[in-house]
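Researcher: Go.
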Amino acid sequence: MEGYRDANSPVYGYKGPRLQSYHGYEEPPCIDTSLVRSIWVDSLPRRQVKAFKIGHQQYHLWSPNSSQVPFYPGLRDPYAPNYISVHPRLDGHIGPGDPTVNSQYPDPKQLWLPFIEREARNLDEGDAAFVKVHDVWNFNPPGLSDGFIQLLKQQHKAANKEIARLKLTHFNLPSSVLDAASSACFWCPGNNLEYLEKVDDYGDAVDEVTKWQRGKSTYQASMIKRLVQQSIPPADDGRMGLWINGDKITELDLCWFLCEAKVPCFVIQELKAQQNKPPTRHQKLPDPSSSFVEGTIIEKKIKNEELDIL
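Model: Structure:
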């Protein structure tokens, strides 16, 4: 079946068929081209522009503060198959809507998601959120390495201590942040760690560890401290960022993300016939691509998938 891998074909083995890690990414996304009222296209800088073309319609994907070209996940389709539980992926991530892999639309209940780290900042620190399961898997007996289990426990304990400190000293933090942070069990429950100590199936380890890692990344993002700036500075491209199309973000929040937090902000814009000209006299329009993957930061991951041991 196209897009699947047989249970016995990977080096480590899975109990049943799984989707390829980036299955479905080449499918045209459901696009929201409406813009926030405060966005006047000609008044914001464009640090990068990428053109896409589906049929006869052309789109521009651009950012006022980021130099990277992200993958556009599109709007979530409520009628799409539930690939998360029915057909897990080889690497454990949950598809285009995974906030630890791709920039998403803002969620009023989780405004810290854009602060999720794309990659480990310092590999020497050993952040368990970025460890690949196949690097810490033992064959005989099968299971996760003792060193990795100890790392999980240490970082879970450190997170709980930080939560306790915040509750005592940071009364001015938004209640939503404290609520998320205090629910440490939502990303790393004690019984999850106990299960990971005993797991002897590679597929189960992939699913449980990546679930832990998603929660860990989300938790770390909720602890972010606000920075103060007065103009639109270059973004911190190590953050996941967010899409600012639509009506899910207020003008005030948009200004904060752009000017104070230095979060990468992205726009996808449908071009009308009269707009098929350079945004400025110094900037040439890019040639349109028919793929929403080509040229984006997800393209390299797809090319490297077959080289990785999953």
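Model: The helical segments are 146-169, 175-182, 190-198, 202-222, 251-260, 297-305.
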